[in-house]
Amino acid sequence: MPAALIYATPEDAETAFYDAIAKRDLNALMNVWAEDDEIVCVHPTGAQLLGFAAIQASWRGILGGARVEIRRQRVARWHSMLISVHHLIERLYANKEAISPIQATHIYLRGPNGWRLTCRHASPGGAPMLRPEKEHRVLH
């Protein structure tokens, strides 16, 4: 397991996650994840991985393959004292070739070692979010 760094905010953890991908640094990437058997990562292919070892093996393969660059845009964020959920659109480039956008949701939990990623769910497609027109609500 990598040496534990403490991330003071979920944004610090998220920045470290993307920096590690850009640097192809598996140890730095895995430091962002919680060291828990219940962490989950779902890749855009639909592969669901459960636990630190499975997630680490998967990212080892990804980082050992094509040169990957991710440009991210945060769409929404929900935050409390112990949990933070971020929804992003990722623009993925492999060997400088654009690949279709990815929608990703990250869930961070705050624990004794700061903020850690506990769930990443990424799906292909980056169509704009549809927002319903203003709804009228009736209170009784």
Question: Would you kindly provide a written description of the structure presented here, covering whatever features stand out?
Answer:
With 140 residues, this protein is of the alpha+beta class. It has a single domain, classed as Nuclear Transport Factor 2, Chain: A, CATH 3.10.450. 24% of the residues lie in helices and 40% in strands. It has helices spanning 10-23, 26-32, 52-64; strands at residues 40-42, 48-50, 68-79, 83-94, 97-111, 114-124. It has a six-stranded mixed sheet, covered by helices on one side. The chain is globular.
| Main structural class | alpha+beta
Strand content: 35-45%
- Measured between the Cα atoms of the first and last residue, the distance is 55 Å
| Total separate domains | 1
Mean pLDDT: 87
User: How are the strands ordered across the major sheet?
Assistant: 2-1-6-5-4-3
Order of secondary-structure elements: HHEEHEEEE
Helix content: 10-25%
So, CATH architecture?
Roll
Write a compact overview of the structure shown.
The chain is α+β, with helices and mostly antiparallel strands and 140 residues long. It is 24% helix and 40% strand.
